[in-house]
Amino acid sequence: MFRSVPIEEVYRKLLHGLVIIFPVAIFYSPSVFSISRESIVKICLLLLILSIFIEVLRLLNISFGEWFYSKFGAMLREEEKKHLTGATYIAGAIFICAWLSTTNESLAVCSFLGLTLFVLGDAAAALAGKSFGKIKIGKKTLEGAIACFLLCFMLSYFIFPQLPKVLDGWGTEISFVQAIVIGLSVSLLELFPIKLGRLHINDNLYVPVLVTYISYFIR
Q1: CB 207 within 8 A of CB 189
Q2: Sequence-distant (≥ 6) Cβ neighbours of residue 74 within 8 angstroms
Q3: Per-residue confidence (pLDDT) for residue 200, from 0 to 100
Q4: Alpha-carbon torsion (85, 91, 94, 99), positive or negative
Q5: Residue 140 pairs with which residues in a beta bridge?
Q6: Residue 164 dihedral angles phi and psi, to the nearest 5°
Q7: What average pLDDT does the chain have?
Q8: Burial 54-90 (b: 16+ CB within 10 A, else e)
Q9: How buried is 195 (Cβ within 10 angstroms: 0-12 exposed, 13-18 middle, 19+ buried)?
Q10: Residue 171, by phi and psi: left (phi above 0), alpha (psi -120 to 50) or beta?
Q11: What residues contact residue 54 under an 8 Å CB cut-off, 6+ apart?
């Protein structure tokens, strides 16, 4: 049986979906807009600094915090009300992936892949889990993880190879096995949070980066 998804969650995922603009810009700006990847890194760094500044202001300034909650509070997770939001961690991941993309064309492709798949896979997992997820794994669901895997696999195997310049950077065709590994990487890293002692690392930060490296090493 399907359950209705809270409209705040839909808005949250739609907002996160706008992040796709950045991997596209990171990968295609040199060829399409004649903007170097180094320049994109600087833009992403400014975005990260701005996001951190807003977060600090929100947490320390009462009047700004009240205004922020009046506009965006409904989309915040409970733990984000007193800590950094997922948006800032995503901004961190965007900056790291942009920086990695300056290394070589292969890492640029993998950054494009890792960041895009995380954004779309995370949205699929959240919406599927809240719509019909029943089997709980921590705070997430098996059904959400399966939806994430299927979407990421199909994008890796069927869609990304059709995009301009992707296979040039990848070096060959993206094989069926490689697409499975990439899909599993996104879904499992998203499903099982990484913890270092008491430190819980936000998946918005580490999943895109780890998927980028995994994709790079299985080429």
Answers
A1: yes
A2: 8, 11
A3: 76
A4: negative
A5: 137
A6: -55, 135
A7: 91
A8: ebeebeeeeeeeeebeeebeebbeeebeeebbbbbbb
A9: exposed
A10: left
A11: 68
Instruction: Judge if pTM exceeds 0.70.
Output: yes
Please report which helix (H) or strand (E) contains residue 127, including its range: helix 105-132
d(CA 68, CA 70): 5
**Percent of the chain residues topping a pLDDT of 70:** 93
Which residues have CB under 8 Å from 133's CB, separation 6+? Answer: 140, 141, 142, 143, 144
pLDDT of residue 72: 81
Name the nearest CA neighbour of 19 among 42, 47, 39, 38: 47
> What is the distance between the alpha carbons of residues 165 and 113, in angstroms, rounded to a whole number?
12
- Would you call 137 exposed, middle or buried from its count of C-beta atoms within 10 A (0-12, 13-18, 19+)? middle
Cβ-proximal residues to 28 (8 Å cutoff; 6+ apart), any chain:
164, 165
Tokens of 113: 């892949």
CB atoms within 10 A of CB 110: 28
- Average pLDDT value for residue range 61-72: 90
pLDDT-derived band at 57, boundaries 50, 70, 90 = very high
**Per-residue pLDDT tens digits for 96-113:** 999 999 999 999 999 999
pLDDT digits (tens, 9 = 90+) for 5-24: 677 666 676 766 788 999 99
Cβ neighbours, 10 Å, residue 9: 18
Tokens of 164: 């301009």
Give residue for tokens 């949070």: 193
